[in-house]
Records
---
Amino acid sequence: MGIPIGNTYTATASGSVWRPVRCEHCDVSFAYLMKREGIGVADSLLWSRNEAAGEEASAMAQESLAVQLESQWDARPCPGCGAYQSSMTYLWRKARFMNVAFVLGGVLALCSATLFVMILFDFHPPRAAASGLRWASLTSFFGMGVAWYWSQRLDPNADAAKRAGRVEPGVLRKEAYEERVAEGALPPLSWERAHLPPA
Ligand SMILES: [Zn+2]
């Protein structure tokens, strides 16, 4: 933000790939659809290179998308036994933490904003309200740490048996996938390299 001295170009590129997995628990082979979005930003200082900046932004977005599709993976349960692969555990735990952190972060931001406005306008709230705000801020702040500790101790496969045999949307067993390949509807996969990148 500030005085406008040029244009900022933003571009997005979205894409998806099918990731093959050979389950380390039950040996079932399956593939899941992994979707990603790349973002590119470029500046045209003093409007000197608008066209170049636009192209630069979309090239950056494409590059970022390609890197993500090549190097990342998702946490998806096996349609055979319902378990997650060990290489997916970190992602699964992070997702659990982020759910809690999102709520706590919201509380923290709200409290901070309220306190900031009170200070700004030299407003003295009733003592109970002030201590309530402080309490909520501190709790959500330390709650983040507790949530992280908690999430790192969760076992993604504790309830794997409940998911056994369930094929989620965006997941195909190898046989079903190969049928679609034969129809020309999906690109062939290298099942030998199952679960990319190597854990
Ligand atoms: Zn399995």
---
Amino acid sequence: MDIKNNLLMICHECDALQDVSQIPEENIALCVCCGGRLFKNSKSAIEKPLALIIACVILFIVANSYPIMKLNIMGIERETTLTGSAIIFFEQGRPDLAMVVWFTSVLLPGFSIFALCYILISIYFKKCWRFTRSLLLWVSRLLPWGMMDVFLLAILVALVKLSSLADIVLGLGFIAFVALILCYAAAISSIEMHVLWDSLDKKSLGIRP
Ligand SMILES: [Zn+2]
């Protein structure tokens, strides 16, 4: 048996090293020692996440370009975007909170979405562009820090509390933001990181050994 042609993988649960090169398409590889899920050999391992990430790019641009809500308190109207809400915290003397909100709901998700788009397009066209490897490394590290869903929860709590004090109109940015969270979750769950690394490691990309 030629070990160079085998695809070896370490189980994240028990660290057992095993050969996963013979997993049929659309089947899930399980660890022979602990039964933990290793990966799914999906036929559309690149196309499906790429389509979802392109949708995320569009939704991210819309969510950050349009107001998330418009408040009317006793005739005084004010509307804000995602970045605008962080600026409000900054103006009220809470730069720490402003930074946390902006990093976890705008900067990190934005970086992950655009970087994944770059990586998936690179792999889809069977190229390894200059920054593909380093971006994939950074995305793997930063994914747990994107907390758009927590920010959405905070917005919903604020909406409930403010509903008795002000007239609230949800903006296009809010609708796009909710759609973005759903689309982003679907994209991340469809990405098999080892398939991306495996594709980059092969000299002839996209061709299974
Ligand atoms: Zn295991």
